[in-house]
Structure formats: structure tokens, C-alpha cells
Amino acid sequence: YTIPWPENHRFAMWKFDDLAEHMIEEGFVDTADEFIVPDLPPHEWVLKVHDRDYYYSFIEGRMDEDLLRRTGFSRRPSHEQLVRRSLLEVSGSVLASRLALSHGIALHLGGGTHHAHVDWGAGYTCLNDLAVATRVLQHEGLVERVLIVDTDVHQGDGTAAIFAGDSSVFTMSMHCAQNFPFGFKGVKNLGYLGNDESDLDIGLPIGCGDVEYMAELKAHLPKILENFAPDLLLYIGGVDVWEGDALGKLNLTESGIYERDHYIVDQAVSNGVPIVCTIGGGYDSNRQRLAYRHSLVHRAAIQVWGALQEEAGKREGALQADASFL
């Protein structure tokens, strides 16, 4: 998903390659060949969510300059490369969703483009990957009810707008209440921001730390899983909640981010709900530390998966021991 990019651009386009390299260096995979690479998606997938005129104006490079400026990508070396990597990221989330249904957990080294609306993008997102994944799997009859848990520091306004009034999708956004996309009412040319509501919005105060954050999460997620009973959980594990993030206003430590990720994955697995983990936002000039923070959700998921396999092995051993007495 990484393409040539200005080094001083706010969006860390290089983080996707950095994360992949980090996962190899840390021994989670041996070589890059072990990563499952998506193909470009058919247009029909994206059009299940996005307006036809908006979509084709984006992929054909004729988008209105104002709409392009909204995305944050008006300054880009190659529009063609931006389109391609955006489409691949969407396809990656569809692929990860299929894999989650087959294996229980799937880890995506990108994804979480939650500001993209039906006919406009914002906040460094042009196409809404999790919305497309949801609609594709629903259309194919693979799932009926999808839960989207978004813990990026910024509200998932695009996802909220896309699924507003749709009882088959529950959108939960846990974010800083005084951060983008809020705070623009009355600001010229920015009135389109901050108007969307998720099924559950948990707006946290500036400076919220690990303890308060986890208390809020634990107060809500188990109830949603029980009452909504999803067939699939799509998770955005944004690391812009970190205490030193350039665009975040919360105070989570790296340990707190890991605890959050581990809890959410464990809740899904414990309830028998397949989960897709995407990385969401993260803004830091220290590339190594940013890659590490984005790896936390993958580390947490791998730990949960390992514990699950260990427990399954113990049960199998107990069954074999019982059988020996028959």
C-alpha cells in the first residue's frame, strides 16, 4: 500500500511497508512471500457503497479540486498510484474478511479508511474499505450482521453515515470528542464535517488515559456483542490514541494500546465472532516506533490465537486420555 510520497506530508504513506518489514524482523513471518496479497477489486464491489460519479471521477483522475482537497491528498506525486493503492486496500479488507470467516482471525496490514463517505472523502481516506467489505460479504450471503468497532482517535464519520439506519450493521466509534471531524460548525466550507452519528459514539475527553479508556470499553463492548450478536467484527485499531501522536489528543500508553487490542480480539474470539483487525490512523515522524505501535494489534491477535490453540490442544489431550479408559 506504500507509494512514492513527499517526506514532509502529514500522512505517513511509508508506514505500510515499515509495518511489513517490522513483522518480518520480529519473526512473525519469515519472508514477505508469506503475506497474502490482494488483487484489484472489481468496480462492482466499490459501487455497492460509493456513488458512481464520485467513484469514477476519483479513479479516472477528474475529481473536483475541492473534493480532492477534502481528502488531504491534493499534494501527491501520482494520482494513478494513489488510486491503485486505495483500491488494493479496499480489496485487502474484503480478502481479510473472507479469511476471518474461514479461520476466526485475520490481520490486515492496512485498512480502516473510515472518513470516506458515499460521495466524498476526507481525513486521508477516499474509499471506505470496511463498508465495502461489509456490503460485499452481505451480498454474497456470507454474513448478515456486521459489527464495526472503531477505536481510531477520530470518529468514524464516513462509516457512521454509510450505515445510518441500517439495522444489519452496528457502528461503534470510540474517539476523542474534541478532535476531527468535530469543531467545524460555522467554519466556512467545512460545515459538512461533524454531523454524523454512529450507533454508539463514545466521545472521550482530551487527555483520557489507559484506565479511563479501558473502563469505557469494558462497559460497552460485551453488551453489544451479546445484544447485537454479529456474524463478523471489523476492528479499526488506530494508534493515534497514543499519548505522543501528532494528531491525537488522548494519553494512552503503548501498553494501554496493546491492552485495548488484546481485549477486543479476546472478546470477539470468546464469543465465537470472527474478527478482522485493521490498523487505522497513526502519526509520528519516528518511523520505527510508529511501525511498532501499528504491530500491537497483530501481536495481541497472535497472542489470543496462540492461547486459543493451546487450550484446544489441552482439550484434545484430555479427550484422548478419557478415551484410553474406554
TrEMBL record:
Stretches assigned to the Histone deacetylase domain: 11-289
UniProt key word Hydrolase: yes
GO molecular function: histone deacetylase activity; hydrolase activity
Entry's Gene Ontology BP terms: epigenetic regulation of gene expression
Keywords: Hydrolase
InterPro entries: HDAC_classIV, HDACs, His_deacetylse_dom, His_deacetylse_dom_sf, Ureohydrolase_dom_sf
Protein name: Histone deacetylase domain-containing protein
Protein source organism: Lotharella globosa
